[in-house]
Amino acid sequence: MKPVEIKDSIYWVGAVDWNIRDFHGYSTYKGSTYNAYLAKDEKVALFDTVKKPFYLDLVHRLHNLMDPTEIDYLVVNHMEPDHSGSLKETIEAIKPSKIYTSVMGAKSMAGYYKIDNWPIETVKTGDVLNLGKHSVHFLEARMVHWPDSMFSYIPEEKLLISNDGFGQHWATSERFDDEVDNGELMRQAAKYYANILMLYSPLIAKLLEKVGEMGLEIDMIAPDHGLIWRNNPGQIIQAYQTWSQQKATAKALVVYDTMWHSTEAMAKAIYDGILDSGVSVQMMNLCNTHRSEVMTEVLDAKALVFGSPTLNNGMLPRMADVLHYMRGLKPTDKICATFGSYGWSGEAPKMIAAQLQEMNLELIADPVRVQWAPNHDSLKPCRELGQKIGQAVAAANLPPSCRAIHCTP
Question: Domain 249-393 is in which class?
Fold first, then answer.
C-alpha cells in the first residue's frame, strides 16, 4: 500500500493491522490501523509513528515520498505503544532536529525509552510550529485517553490530526469515510468510544466545548486509528457531543448468562415484558457476546437488565467479567434491574444489584429470582419486571433507539 495524499502535500504513511483481535480486553475482530501522517513543506514533519512490528511499513511509505533523513520534525501526539512503539527506530532513521510533544508526553517518553539526548521540545495549547505554507497549532487533549494526548491542527488545510480521538479499530484497504459503509463506520466509531473513551466523557465534553470556542474550521479529521473523516467530519463531532453527554435512547438491554436455560427463560420473559411497552430491546447472551459488544450497546441504552444463575454462591464468571469491565468505564444515567435462577442458595441477582449500586446506577426493582426450572406461573414476575422497565423507559420520553448505533439522536 502506497502513501495516500489526504491534503495538499500531506500524506497518510501508516500501517494496517489485519490480524489483531484483542486490544487490552476490547474485541478487535475487524483489525485496526496505526495511522501516521507526513507534511511536506519547507520543513517536513512526521506526525506519530506506528506499533513496533509495523515499523518497516512506515519506513517503506516514507521512502516512497522522500529520503527519511530529510524529515525535520517528529510530532508525538500520544505515547501509547500502538503509536510510539517504533519511536526509537524512527528517530534513529530520520534523525529529526526537533521532537515535539506535550509535557506529559516528554515524561512518558523518558519513562518508556530511558533517553537523555533526544531533541525534545515540549508544547502546550496555543503553541505553533511553522513549516512554511503550513503551520501546526497544538491543542492539549488530556485524557483522550492518556494524560499526554494532544491534537495537531493545520488551519491552512482545515485539518485536525486527532490521534486517539474520533478513531475506530477497523482494518480496511480504504482510507476515507466516504469509501466505506457509513452505518458500519458509525458502529465501529461508537464501539471505540464506548470501550475506550466513555470513562472520560466529562473531559471530552469540555474539550469539544473548547474547540467550539476556538472557532476551529475543520473539514477533515485524521485519527490515528481507522478511517479519515473527509466527507462529513461534523457527523463524528456531533456523535461525540452526544456520546460524551451519555444521552440515552429508548432502548433496553437484557444481558444474561445461563447454565441449563432457566435464567434464559427468565430473560425471554423480561424481554417480552419490555416489548409490551413498545420499547426497543436487545437480548445479549454472554455465552456468545463479547464484553466490548455489550458496552457498545450500553452506550446509548437507557435500561440495563442483568441476569445470572447462582454458581458456588456467586454469579457466573462471564457476568462478573462484564460488570468489572463496565465498572471501569463508568456509564451514567441508566435504570437497572437484576434476575436469576437458582437451586438452593440464589445469591447472584443480589450480588449483581449490589455492584450496580456501587456504580451509582439506579435500581428500579428488587431482584427477581426463580428456584429450579421456571414455569408459566414463576415467569409472571419476570414479565412484570420487563413491563416495569419498559414503562420507565417509555416515560422518560427519549428519542428512538438507533439499535446498532448506525445513527445519532
Answer: alpha beta
- List, for residues 124-137, the tens digit of each pLDDT value: 999 999 999 999 99
Query: Is 225 one of the annotated active-site residues of the chain?
Result: yes
CA–CA gap between residue 368 and residue 378 (Å, rounded): 10
Closest CA to 73 of 46, 108, 93, 41: 46
Transcribe 160-171 into DSSP letters.
Answer: EEEETTT-----
The answer, yes or no, to whether residue 146 has pLDDT greater than 90, is no
Q: Which amino acid is at 373?
A: A
Q: Which one from 82, 148, 157, 300 is the annotated catalytic residue?
A: 82
Q: 37 an active-site residue?
A: no
Say whether 78 is catalytic.
yes
Nearest CA among 132, 128, 127, 78 for reference residue 101 = 78
Using one digit for the tens of pLDDT, what is the confidence trace for 16-25? 999 999 998 8
DSSP code at position 172: -
Could you say which of 41, 140, 148, 164 is catalytic?
164
Domain 4-244 class, CATH top level: alpha beta
* Catalytic residue list contains 169: no
Out of 11, 100, 192, 193, the active site residue is 192
- Domain coordinates of the chain in residue numbers? 4-244, 249-393
Rounded Cα gap, residues 13 and 392, in angstroms: 50
- The pLDDT of residue 409 is above 50: no
What is the tens place of the pLDDT at every residue in 159-218?
A: 999 999 999 999 999 999 999 999 999 999 999 999 999 999 999 999 999 888 899 999
Q: Tell me which DSSP letter residue 195 carries.
A: I
